[in-house]
Amino acid sequence: MSKSKAPAVPSPSSSVLLLSPQNHVLLLQRVKASSSFASAHVFPGGNLSSYHERDVPAGGSKERHVDGKAYREAAVRETFEESGILLAKGKNGRLLELGEDEMVKGRREVHGNKVRFGDWLESKGGSADFDGLTPFTRWVTPTNVPKRFTTQMYVYCLPTSSSTPLSDSADGQDEPPEVKIPTPTPDGGLEHTTARFLPASAWLRLAQEGRIILFPPQFFLLHQAAQHLDALSAPTDYASISRKAVSQGELDSRRQRLLEFISRPPAGEEGGISWRDMCISPTVQPPRTGQKRDDGRNVLGLDRPGPELEAEGSGRKGLKSQCVLVEFKKDGPRRVAVISRSEAMDGNGGAKL
């Protein structure tokens, strides 16, 4: 009897849910020829690089599945390569601002491994803003998928905008002008074809209408972010976002609520851990009755962290109270939705959770 093939070792990667000054979220569309997430809309991010990050956690080590410097370096580097937005600060403590030609040349050289990202950044008088990255779950690809990742997700908030670029301070001197945030641009078709900021709820609505492809991790995290950033009338009523202008004070309050949410365990989760430390390996749940759901979608359980973390006894886990519905089609996941555990268990074809 032949032995079953061992699951692939998850490659370490980072991804960033990047908030614009208006609390919109950046998504990039992958090229059709991509070996992973083809044509899908994704957060900026990618694999850790032994050339750029050097100290990449070894396979089998506990550090492989823990937030650390190498993951943060990759998050900043990949965001720059893929969108042209540099999450770095200059010697004055403000976001580093460079000329367009410098940025274009830097993206090309860093992506082509002509220069180490850290060395290039230092030569421009900047340093990566690691402290601005807030961990927001880790996702480990299930073992039934040939290409697996252990992806550290982060949130990064670009400075919010006020109504005027200059204001008079108490001593009569103008405050420094607000940081100019570059318009995100794709990488010339190397990996992405478009780059755009939209409200989290707008991205979710586009996915539900079948106009874009969002994989379950992206859909799930956008859903969580929308609850705090978009003032929805109901958790899944993504069309209810107001089109009225939002003050800078309210923008700051909303992102602060999101960051506080991330720092706490989910409500109602017995012995739960915070969203910062949560680790999720989504798994298809078999129906209790042996029959498929009436709508033909699969239920993904989010409570397990993946075999690697279970084996090491880290105590990390995922989320029990929520599940994801999804229909897997040839062109990617469709009809994705976030539902409660009780909803997933109810009705014909309810999941065995």
Question: What features would you describe in this structure?
Answer:
The protein is of the alpha+beta class. Helices cover 24% and strands 22% of the residues. It is built from eight helices and 14 strands. The chain has a five-stranded mixed sheet, with helices on both faces. A four-stranded antiparallel sheet has the order 11-12-13-14. A hairpin with a 2-residue loop joins strand 13 and strand 14 (332-340). Helix 1 packs across helix 2. The longest helix has 16 residues, at 248-263. The chain is globular, with a radius of gyration of 21 Å. It starts with 10 loop residues before the first strand and ends in an 8-residue tail after the last helix. The relative contact order is 0.15.
Helices and strands, with pairings:
Blueprint: E1 11-19, E2 25-30, E3 41-42, E4 45-47, H1 69-83, E5 88-90, H2 100-111, H3 117-123, E6 126-128, E7 134-140, E8 149-157, E9 192-198, H4 200-208, H5 216-229, H6 248-263, E10 279-280, E11 283-285, E12 298-302, H7 307-312, E13 319-329, E14 332-340, H8 341-345
Parallel strand pairs: 1-8, 7-10
Antiparallel strand pairs: 1-4, 2-3, 2-9, 5-6, 7-8, 11-12, 12-13, 13-14
Helix pairs in contact: 1-2, 4-5, 5-6
